[in-house]
Write a structure and sequence with these properties.
The protein is α/β, with parallel strands linked by helices. The chain has nine helices and eight strands. Bound molecules: pyridoxal-5'-phosphate (PLP).
């Protein structure tokens, strides 16, 4: 099933790239494997997927113990400071940094692990209270400036989740806001390159608005069963 799903998804990504005047090679596909087991990850890996996304620190820690650096791990969930140590050990990219104190903790853990941790800032571009991330421009600029002072952190770009809605206009607005914010930050002599945006339901709009990383789960692995532990799948 994963093979068929991936083929269908890659066809859609290629078609959207063609329609949007983008090159498919500019866009990294991150397979969001949360709630899915090692077997599914290995299967997708054999089909050419090298990057996997997880949203819980312990789940990432445990999967990393089993698979190590055979694949690139992305952390895309809300991160509590006391769990940063697990995530820094495993993640090639942390998408969800949203405060100075979290950036400081990641920097500290990265130094301990003798690495420079690549990160993105999570931005709240929708107006939903339930969504995580930063939404005050002043705060965002402050955090960008702060990251520059941390020697074990490398800030590469921005991440967002679109609002949960069928209204394409609102989704597009959310993604274009992220792109504009990146351009604005870059006018201040900073060089952000990545825009992590687009999931199963909205990746086509994200490609059109300039995404460089797509985080896609269910279109690859099928529906998640939230009642099951990933070890049991
Ligand atoms: C689960 C998740 C995704 C993937 O969602 P799908 O709808 O399954 O593609 C993307 N981004 C984040 C932050 C997630 O938590």
């Amino acid at each position: 099933m994963i093979a068929e799903n991936l083929k269908r998804l890659r066809d859609k990504i290629n078609a959207q790239c063609a329609a949007s005047g983008r090159r498919a090679e500019e866009i990294k596909l991150i397979a969001v494997s949360k709630y899915f087991g090692i077997e599914a990850i290995n299967e997708a890996n054999k089909l050419g997927i090298t990057d996997f996304g997880e949203n819980k620190a312990q789940e990432l820690r445990d999967k990393f113990e089993l698979l190590g650096n055979k694949v690139n791990w992305h952390f895309i969930g809300t991160l509590q400071r006391n769990k940063a140590k697990y995530v820094v050990k495993a993640a090639s990219l942390i998408h969800s940094v949203d405060s100075i104190s979290l950036a400081d903790e990641i920097n500290k853990q990265a130094a301990k692990n003798d690495k420079v941790q690549d990160i993105l800032l999570e931005i709240k571009t929708s107006f939903e209270e339930t969504k995580a991330g930063l939404n005050q421009e002043e705060q965002i600029i402050k955090l960008v400036e702060h990251c520059k002072t941390l020697s074990n952190i490398n800030l590469m770009g921005l991440m967002t989740m679109a609002p949960y809605t069928d209204d394409e206009k609102l989704i597009r607005k959310s993604f274009s806001e992220l792109r504009k914010l990146k351009d604005k930050i870059n006018q201040q002599g900073i060089n952000l390159i990545e825009l992590s945006m687009g999931m199963t339901s909205d990746f086509e709009i994200a490609i059109d608005e300039g995404a460089t990383m797509l985080r896609i789960g269910s279109a690859i692995f099928g529906k998640r069963d939230y009642a099951k532990d990933w070890r049991m799948i």
